[in-house]
Amino acid sequence: MASMCFCGDWLVLACDSKWIAADVTHDRDVFVFDCSEVERRRQQQREGSDGAEETGSDKILAIAASPSGKLLAVTDDNKRLLVFRFDSSWRRISCRWVARRCTSMVFTQTEEELLVADKSGDVYLFSVKEGEKMGELKMGHLSMLLSVTLSHDDEYIITADRDEKIRVSRLRSPHNIQSFCLGHREFVTTLLVPPGHPDWLLSGSGDGTVRLWEYETGRQLQSLDLSAPAAEQQEKQTVCRLAIAPGGGHVAVQCERSNIVQCLSLVDDLQVQSSLPLPDCPLDLTFDTDGRLWVMMDDREALLRVFKQQEGRWMHEDGSPGLRRAMEAFRVHWELLDAPSRMCSRFQHLRKVDFDNVSSYLQKKEERLQQKRRRTEKEQDDTVCS
């Protein structure tokens, strides 16, 4: 799985066990970090075993940038949680371990804390300043968590899970549930609170919809179905990524295994503005600080495309020095990902299978009744003959 985000002026690509950062604004050296070179946790620390090391593959599972772009959090499937800071250069400031593999992370607006959601449904809070302090369990769902975000004032923590639920809780007292945003019919994959609309929440789901909520009350304001027509596919497409421009007026939507990026406008409501057809299905997308849309493609020679809003249209931008620097930096490490791992579905296993037990039960019941009737008729015939 490949993913990317902007951390200030740095475009960060997570690729297998490495993350690579390229400054698209200034001519600075590329930074590369390999998680496989970090010490592994000894199992005896938590299991009382013979001291064997964790046996994960070191693949990066999630990355998160802080609001200022000065901090980056990375977690891998060896359950390491690494936090980096950029001053004049990138440096690692802490290495800790999470209880279970992480699915989503978010920094608080103050950047003093980091919230980490995992596949068991728990959310842990880690201090950024106290780099040796382990995480504090804040809350839990009864299902796998897929996304976590915060309100702009850090008052509410908003979590989404496999069971279609979006839960809004008080960050400092998460047992106090403010509301539930209910309406999705499949797992909820992504959440964001848009700049300029601190009372609103955007969510994407495996049901192919993007929904707009007033999250404090749980009221749904709008729902947009972005899936292709039902005749063209067996099931709804999964909305796997929502990205929003710094001003908050433009939203880009990526659907899994679709080569079309939907561009939405968000002013008084959510409107489909335009569609960007691409040669192949994108792997990820994000906005930079100038509001340009960066799309990562499954193409080593042209793995990045940049679009800029001009006169109400998204125009392809080519040949900027920052784009060239990023392309050159990322190409070197692209072979770490083979094609199957780049394009495999991250969400297919989350779809629930419906079993119709009633029909088989009724059929077996009818068979038993027929057998009983035949036995009764045979006994009656035997009685008459005797």
Describe this structure in words.
There is one protein chain. The chain is mainly beta and 386 residues long. The protein is built from four helices and 28 strands. The chain has helices at 44-47, 321-331, 339-343, 357-385, and strands at residues 2-7, 10-15, 18-23, 31-34, 60-65, 71-76, 80-86, 90-97, 102-107, 113-118, 122-127, 136-140, 145-150, 156-161, 166-170, 177-181, 188-192, 200-205, 209-214, 219-225, 239-244, 250-255, 260-266, 270-277, 284-287, 293-296, 304-310, 313-317. The strands form seven sheets. A four-stranded antiparallel beta sheet has the order 1-2-3-4, with helices on one face. It has a four-stranded antiparallel beta sheet with strand order 5-6-7-8, with no helix packed on it. The protein has a four-stranded antiparallel beta sheet with strand order 9-10-11-12, with no helix packed on it. A hairpin with a 7-residue loop joins strand 26 and strand 27. Mean pLDDT is 88; it is low at 44-50.
Summarize the structure.
The protein contains four helices and 28 strands. The chain has helices spanning 44-47, 321-331, 339-343, 357-385; strands at 2-7, 10-15, 18-23, 31-34, 60-65, 71-76, 80-86, 90-97, 102-107, 113-118, 122-127, 136-140, 145-150, 156-161, 166-170, 177-181, 188-192, 200-205, 209-214, 219-225, 239-244, 250-255, 260-266, 270-277, 284-287, 293-296, 304-310, 313-317.
